[in-house]
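Inverse folding, one chain.
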């Protein structure tokens, strides 16, 4: 989302959303917030510790391990992953000397065959989304936690494979005297689970809830995240009488009434976006028209835990649109679009040539129409050898300026990172 106060809001969010704390939830359960990019939940059993996720790097997990040794002499013998994202598993190796069982759930939907062939571009887009090439000042915040350790020289990913991989929908176990219900809960990932500790009335929800607008779509790219299933998972989480909700990122939510309020609004806001997008599709609107029309009602938009600091509503709408009906919007003009290079050449000619486009770019920049300026630059950059290298050099410079200005207006950390990363790439060409 674009907003004139985006940078100030992101700075405030970064300063308040994930302070470094070891929070005692009950006599037997703690949550480490701000020790890594993600949280780690520590459950004390009769003779050992059970960890739910392990932070994002070996160095950070090692510091957590040292802290735990000051609190108890019980070793970590069991690790449970809420899902497979590396920022939740990257610290696992720090516990290799004592861990005996590592539990995970298999994804409900397989990765598309051949995905490994596009890993180079997915990795490049991931680098941009998370701002791995940005300074701390440029970054402001990585979005859901402190910067990942591997990005700033604070350790590396240190993975250990699961020793127990469940394919069931639900598993109930007692681990070292602690009762757990582990439930498959498709949402941000297809292998996502939640953990219910009935004796403590604690819900560990992984990344299906955190305190800002979620990544219903990740701009780094990936398979469609089933939003309807995500809503169903949130409803199932809400069916438990939890007194503490421990998310995979950011601070816990405490008290059953507060959990019901927060999760209820979070769930209904997502459901609203899904329902409104489907309504627009059913009316025959295009993806662009739908993205422009669907907005959160003010009652949701004003809530602090639904601010667009990570995902955005517009990206969510576009993902839902394509997830349900694919790329074709129903307009026959789009069945066989003019090739991009020819399209750019034709529009440049129609506008009166490169000079006319360049004048329009400068005017757009002067009038703070940065999105329009960027799109005009794309015409010059996309017209092939009919546009001279001198014009293209100017276009790269103008586009980089446009992207930098857009980054200052973007409330989503991911969007900010992507704008700035691409601007820096253009400035190097």
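Residues assigned per position:
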């Amino acid at each position: 989302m674009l907003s004139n106060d985006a940078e100030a809001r992101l700075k405030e969010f970064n300063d308040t959303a994930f302070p470094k704390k070891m929070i005692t939830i009950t006599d037997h359960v703690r949550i480490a917030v701000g020790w890594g990019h993600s949280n780690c939940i520590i459950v004390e059993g009769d003779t050992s510790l059970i960890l739910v996720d392990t932070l994002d790097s070996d160095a950070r997990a090692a510091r957590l391990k040292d802290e735990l040794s000051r609190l108890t002499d019980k070793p970590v013998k069991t690790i449970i992953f809420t899902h497979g994202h590396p920022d939740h598993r990257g610290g696992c190796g720090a516990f290799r000397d004592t861990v005996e069982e590592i539990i995970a759930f298999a994804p409900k939907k397989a990765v598309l065959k051949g995905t490994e062939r596009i890993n180079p571009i997915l990795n490049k887009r991931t680098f941009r989304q998370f701002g791995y090439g940005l300074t701390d000042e440029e970054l402001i915040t990585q979005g859901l936690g402190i910067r990942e350790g591997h990005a700033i020289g604070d350790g590396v990913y240190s993975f250990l494979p699961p020793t127990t991989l469940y394919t069931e929908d639900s598993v109930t176990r007692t681990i070292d005297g602690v009762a757990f219900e582990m439930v498959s809960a498709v949402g941000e990932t297809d292998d996502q689970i939640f953990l219910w500790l009935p004796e403590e009335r604690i819900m560990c929800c992984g990344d299906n809830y955190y305190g800002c607008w979620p990544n219903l779509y990740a701009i780094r790219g990936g398979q469609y995240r089933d939003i309807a299933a995500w809503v169903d998972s949130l409803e199932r989480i809400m069916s438990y009488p939890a007194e503490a909700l421990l998310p995979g990122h950011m601070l816990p939510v405490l008290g059953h009434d507060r959990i019901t309020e927060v999760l209820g609004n979070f769930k209904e806001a997502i459901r609203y976006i899904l329902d409104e997008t489907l309504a627009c599709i059913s009316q025959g609107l295009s993806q662009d028209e739908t993205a422009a029309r669907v907005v959160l009602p003010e009652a949701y938009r004003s809530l602090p835990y639904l601010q667009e600091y990570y995902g955005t509503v517009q990206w969510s709408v576009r993902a839902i649109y394509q997830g349900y009906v694919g790329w074709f919007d129903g307009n026959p003009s789009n069945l066989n679009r003019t090739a991009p290079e020819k399209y750019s050449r034709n529009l440049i000619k129609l506008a009166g040539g490169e000079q006319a486009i360049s004048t329009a770019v400068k005017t757009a920049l002067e009038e703070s129409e940065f999105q329009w300026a960027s799109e005009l630059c794309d015409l010059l950059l996309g017209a092939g050898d009919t546009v001279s290298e001198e014009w293209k050099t100017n276009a790269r410079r103008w586009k980089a300026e446009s992207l930098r200005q857009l980054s200052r207006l973007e409330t989503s950390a991911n969007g900010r990172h992507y704008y700035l990363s691409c601007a820096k790439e253009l400035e190097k060409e």
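Residues 129 and 414 are 5 Å apart (CA to CA). Residues 338-428 form a domain with the Serine Threonine Protein Phosphatase 5, Tetratricopeptide repeat fold (CATH 1.25.40.880).
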